[in-house]
Amino acid sequence: MGSNMAEAHPVGFQWVMEAKARGAQVLHVDPRFTRTSALADAHVPLRAGTDIAFLGGVINHILSNDLDFREYVVAYTNASFLVHEDYRDTEDLDGLFSGYDEAKAAYDPATWHYEDIRPQDTGHGKETSPSDQHGSGGPVVEGGSEEIAADPTLQHPRCVFQILKRHFARYTPEMVEATCGTPKELFQRVCDAWTSNSGRDRTAALVYSVGWTQHSVGAQYIRAGSIIQLLLGNIGRPGGGVFALRGHASIQGSTDIPTLFNLLPGYLPMPTPAQRTLADYLDAVSGDKQKGFWRNADAYTVSLLKEYWGEKATADNDFCYGYLPRINGDHGTYRTVMDMVDGKVSGYFLLGQNPAVGSAHGRLQRLGMANLDWLVVRDLAMIESATFWKDAPEIETGEITPETCRTEVFFFPAASHVEKEGTFTQTQRLLQWREKAVEPAGDQRSELWFFYHLGRKLRERLAGSADERDRPLLDLAWDYAVHGDEPSAEDVLRRISGQDLTTGEDVSGYLDLKADGSTSSGCWIYSGVYAGGVNQAARRKPRSEQDHTALEWGWAWPYNRRVLYNRASADPQGRPWSERKALVWWDADAGEWTGHDVPDFEKTKPPDYVPPADAVGPAALRGDDPFVMQADGKAWLFAPSGLADGPLPTHYEPHESPFRNPFYAQQGNPARKVYGRRDNPSNPSPPEPHGEVFPFVFTAARLTEHHTAGGMSRTLPYLSELQPDLFVEVSPELAELRGLAHLGWAHVVTSRAAVEARVFVTDRMRPLRVQDRVVHQVWMPYHWGGSGLVPGDVVNDLFGVVLDPNVFIQESKVATCDVRPGKRPRGAALTAYLADYRERAGITPETGTRVSTAHETRHVEPGHEEDGT
Length: 869
Fold this sequence. Notes:
Blueprint: H1 5-8, H2 10-21, E1 27-29, H3 35-39, E2 42-44, H4 51-64, H5 70-76, H6 90-93, E3 100-101, E4 106-107, H7 160-168, H8 173-180, H9 184-196, E5 206-208, H10 210-213, H11 218-231, E6 242-244, H12 251-256, E7 263-264, E8 268-269, H13 278-285, H14 297-309, H15 333-341, E9 347-351, H16 355-358, H17 362-369, E10 374-379, H18 384-391, H19 393-397, E11 408-413, E12 422-425, E13 430-434, H20 447-462, H21 471-474, E14 482-483, E15 486-487, H22 489-497, E16 499-500, E17 519-520, E18 555-556, E19 584-587, E20 592-595, E21 673-674, E22 696-701, H23 717-720, E23 727-730, H24 732-738, E24 745-749, E25 754-761, E26 768-770, E27 773-775, E28 777-781, E29 802-803, E30 815-821, H25 828-840, E31 851-852, E32 857-858
Parallel strand pairs: 1-2, 5-6, 9-10, 10-11, 22-28, 23-25
Antiparallel strand pairs: 3-4, 7-8, 12-13, 13-18, 14-15, 16-17, 19-20, 21-29, 22-30, 24-25, 24-30, 26-27, 31-32
Helix pairs in contact: 4-8, 4-9, 4-11, 15-17
Subcellular location: Cell envelope
GO molecular function: 4 iron, 4 sulfur cluster binding; electron transfer activity; molybdenum ion binding; molybdopterin cofactor binding; oxidoreductase activity
Domain Molybdopterin oxidoreductase: 1-381
């Protein structure tokens, strides 16, 4: 669901097909009939942007028919915990949760917290920083589950289980059909298959990709899927789980050791200005009384600081904590692009991305890059983001002129993945080492080479500086091993893994890390990948020489565990739920956890362990608390904190939708980030009174034959000839409605752009009946741009910038559009054409800022656009 796995992740999909050959049932839920659908047992269509309504229907089916794996749910989730008496649900507030601030378009989550059985409020569970700054364990929840009011019978009206039942009660099969357009019989087939293949003896896996994430409620899509998997006992067990498929080799690695503005390596949050000292920071991250392994964030953080600054980092100077930057707001990619347009950014590095084509609102991206002093582009070919100043679509419209464009572009040819060594971290958290196959040609260089020598040159330039602002750069431990002039990737991996600085030995894992400055590690979750001085990621023992868990093929973080939270694969007494699904279990004779996988639990902690009242950190975890990174040791069906848009998934319509929300008066996600600017127009729902101007639902995705923004495929003749033209898929009914001819030309129009393409009339895009009327959906692949052997219009120009409030990802899987026959206008005629569409749709600069709530329609006033609300 949210994934065309056969086409976008074909190497991984071979294992789905192997499972199907052995009798596994494969169901594909997707707006479009794809190559995945063709190989599945059933294709289940739905309207783009309505996945929570569908998943909520599955949750309701489970709870209404008592199909949950009750023993697992009671023992391992927060189902029994009582929520604060002041909490109000969307059922009470017509689509809003308690704590919503209309003026800020944001929630105060205080009423979402658990009920504390302690006699007085001690600040238990109070958030100390915005949710987007927390690591994977969420905000601090002090104390263990013994300090949370609970009802193990799950009957108390304020327990999470009963709140869940009430919240999803309206998500009936009839509402799923009316909202998603999914026929009831197909929806029922999904429910039956999912529940019958779950429980004590069986498990089911859930696979998603960016079809889920790229929405204004993307984080809540994944929460909804997780709730189902928890209710059915499919987390922490073999054959279960929630798989986030990654678009190419090391997307997982780029979040672990992040390219994200709000995180440090290992999902540690970036410090805020208020956290002036290391003690302030650690108190916000883990507190003094938090339960679980996030309590040890002091060891993870200090070891990271020691890796960054080496001998310069001492206890006397807070281990150079003061050198870390402070997060002071939204610095995501889209906010940064707007800051470029506004003249607030002088220079930019582009590595491994092509925003002129590959990012939402391509026009905004190109205009931003055209307003820089300098731009550095590292890539395999001269991509559109390197040549926009002379060949962007805005040249035709006069918005960019080569003679006056102020941006100086520096292009550095990059080495490809076969021309460099190092690790990739795959979808399943597996680090795999790749040797260099061939030497890079000419001036091509690796990323390691580029950044190592950039750092070296900057440090040489600043040598002798007395300016305090230069100390963080000058004090860096920049002493990596070098082979010739190429930094050693293996030495970098060893530094990431970590060392005992008193002995020089490599650590075996994060349990070895200490907060006293005696250990270093560039990413605590990767610690142990170089255990014993051996590159564990380079192991390649054949599957025929080991069991099915294959622990000697690569290395998975953390500690080479192949299934996270695998303590949940055993019952509370430590016995496998079934012998068929045995993974780890308690060996009473040996007094330890053992099994086919590395236990994700303290090895010698027995299942009946009860912590003392004053225990904190891992010692506060009970013997039946499998979710060791969670602040209460349990999996969260209900999120008492840490999310910006509510403790439970809720169906909201996409920012642009041809329909009103049938569930609540609240139309869209009330906390979504809407950037109201003249250069970011949108057609926010509800669409009245001009809904006929953009009547269709638009979505975009990938093809196997091309790669993301096309820079690695449109330059190659043998790939280009397989998919030589940009095309738009429409149903026969829509083709008749708009007079479109198969293989003829048409153009798709949104409030931001018009894009021309060849017409592909196909039953793969079937019309759906939603709210008693027919809706047509339109699909395009997004790989084309102005350069290469097979150029075409930029599909991402059609999308605007509206973001999920938790992770700042764009809603680029759904928008409203029109489709017209023939090619689009060009130059000044295109500008006038789009202006006419916006006028007919009633779109003004303020329209795009409209955030309709259950109570009123709010507009961001001019001059207040910078806050992103």
